[in-house]
Predict the structure.
Amino acid sequence: SGFSGVNNYSAQAFLDKGKITVENIITTMMAGDEKASSIESEYLQILSKGGKFSFETTDGTTNLIIRNKDENTVLVFKEINLENTSWNLTFYNDGNAVVSVDEPLQEKITLGFGGGGQLFGNAAVNTFGSDYYSSDDSSLTFGQFITTRMAGPAEMMELESKILNLLSQVQVYEVSGKNLTLKDANGTTLLVYREN
């Protein structure tokens, strides 16, 4: 599963002796601009053809390389490492829809992944800390949150409560470009952060 530029997708993938076969690709049905939709269509078409795959390490980063029958590289997937990254909140699930965060708040509401599994950030009024646990299959969970105890305007405190509640539900993450999407176990988008 993944994000193809406009839509999320899932498929069945079969690995056998260095070859990958991808079948039954299904996508969400979001509309996008013409350029993004064209790139997405080409990407899904290349992915559906499968090919030979290998893992190659360059500069300490392991990439998944897919090559076509002529041995030409057609897709490169870079390894994602959350450690030592920081992010600003751009969207959150308000219970009815995924809504945008007002631009001035985007700089204030943060999430950071430190070394040794340490999580830190600001949830609107208070700073917080926790542990995080991630694995190669894009699973991500957080430990108990510890926050400062500052008071703020009622609407900011309400937003902070929502954000911390959503963070406690996270089970899966996806990185696409400069966006980090956090989802629950059912694949529902909870929070979207942008790399800062």
Observations:
- The CA atoms of residues 13 and 52 lie 13 Å apart.
- The first strand starts at residue 2 and ends at 3.
- The mean pLDDT is 90.
